[in-house]
Design goal:
Blueprint: E1 7-10, H1 13-25, E2 33-38, H2 44-48, E3 54-57, H3 60-75, E4 84-87, E5 90-92, E6 107-110
Parallel strand pairs: 1-2, 2-3
Antiparallel strand pairs: 3-5, 4-6
Length: 111
């Protein structure tokens, strides 16, 4: 229906996997880029295989564990809460996907 599509953006890893698989099923592999937010390590295999062109990668469970630890520290009187926290995603491509397991995410308070 849309022969000029060059790229698809997906808001999460599940959508990206579906888009990548649909592209392969349609015989269009290598002609349409998939760009996605990815929060689960298992889905980086799609990047490694070249089915997802690049991923804005933040591990969801690390964000959750950070939130729980920060709240525990707050209730123990060890820290104050910021109004929000920011973590920069890492752009993962076939060039750096092998290093993705070693990425350290830093959650910065924003005042």
């Amino acid at each position: 229906q849309y022969p000029d599509i060059k790229a698809i953006y997906c808001a999460d890893h599940v959508m990206a996997a579906g888009a990548a698989e649909a592209i392969v099923d349609a015989g269009l592999e290598g002609t349409i880029d998939v760009v996605a937010a990815v929060g689960v390590t298992d889905y980086l295999s799609y990047v490694e295989e070249g089915l997802i062109t690049c991923a804005a990668y933040v591990l969801i469970y690390k964000a959750g564990s950070f939130a729980v630890q920060t709240l525990a520290d707050y209730f123990d009187g060890e820290t104050e809460l910021a109004s929000k926290y920011y973590v920069a995603p890492v752009i993962v491509t076939t060039e750096n996907v092998a290093d993705a397991a070693n990425i350290e995410f830093v959650f910065d308070p924003v005042q």
